[in-house]
Amino acid sequence: MGFFLFTRSLRDATEPKKVLELIVNDNQTACFVVNEENQIVIFNDILSFLLNWSVNAIARKPVEDILRYLATQGHDVKVELPPFDHLSKSFLTFKNFGRKGALLLKGYPLGGLPSPAGSYFLIRQEDPPTEKSIRQYFTPIVDKLYSRTRQHLAMLALDDYDLREIDKASKEILESLGPLLQHVRVFLVNRISMDDSSHFARILYDGPPENVQESLEGILYGDTVFFQKLSLNACRPALVEHTDLPWKHEILFPFNWFHHVFGWVGIPITSLEVWKNPVRFSWQEILTELGHSLGLQRSRMGLLPQYQLVGEGVMDRPSLGKALDSMIGRTPPRPFVLLLFRLRDMSMREEFIQLLNKAKRGTDFLGEHPEGLLAVFPDEDPALREAIAERYRKIFEKLIVSDFRFQCVISSHGFPSREWTSTDLLVRMDEINGTEVRPAVEVATDEIVFDDWFKKFLLLKDFE
């Protein structure tokens, strides 16, 4: 009993498929997934058997076609289809399949995606079951099946969405490149995010956007070393040096949603002067939108937490706890540094948010605090927490000279241990007194110059 995938797949689907085939392993239970566009994109061969339809006849059909066939048994008669909301609450029973048999259908949401997107189970019974047997026997069994298959089905359904968004972003970038540089590589993590995957899928976009050529590229042994270095520095852009390509350098920008990194886009450049060119801000904006779109989709599908914001990019307290727990609980744990800014003047909170949003890297994020703001710096060695706090202290020392309302107290803490929870860590942060930021001795200038420690490149040698 196998599953068929009619998604535009880039990732290796072998593992999720094998898991699904082990879980849904009897010849009376069909399973299928409907995507946001109301297309059946994943199903097992039992569905083909129960409906007596070919695999190609089922692929990408709207779920209404299945319901209509079950309700009419293929006869050309008008029938009122049941609402999809009813399917998520109880079974629908379709009788007279076989001599006395019945088919039972139940649907479940695919995360928070609107219906009819969802996971569906169709079960064949030789005798029509009673309402009591459905409630006491079939419902617990199918609920358990859904619980065990939910994440694997969602991951397989994710490919279609990811590749549509990556196609769109890559073509926007190609439009900004000269005719000789229209070549973009995308490195996409093979699972949900870097938190649970160190393996990459790779796709190449070559040529002008109107007739771009797309191709999958093989992964060489040398590339595994390349990817390991990339994944260990998940939040930093990389500068790749090439020796056998028309361009000498390639910039790899990560695309992410808060601390969740989904991959990198490689953009060729002829000169490092491009880094000073305004076009790089356009690239960063495109990739910021890409990461935001992929992150929200994963959140809607239940694959990543749902974060609630209380300001521009500022997580509320429960969401901050979820984010910290996800890094502490990762195997191996993901190190981070935490800074607490206690504001002397809470009316300056929005100005602090704007300033910190400009200074932080793409994967750093802010959280609310009763006395000010918390800043989280993923993938930083906890031993460097004092150095990071010192850099921000120098920024605010200069600002206070021109505007005393930027006075604050900065406290720091590094990743504690696996035994801690986010609650323990936040309580500990409240207990740390911190360092008062005082005006700098040197004369302030009109232009605030930020340290570029967060903009440094990871330097890599391409192994191809």
UniProtKB/TrEMBL annotation:
It comes from the Bacteria. This is Uncharacterized protein. It comes from Leptospirillum ferriphilum.
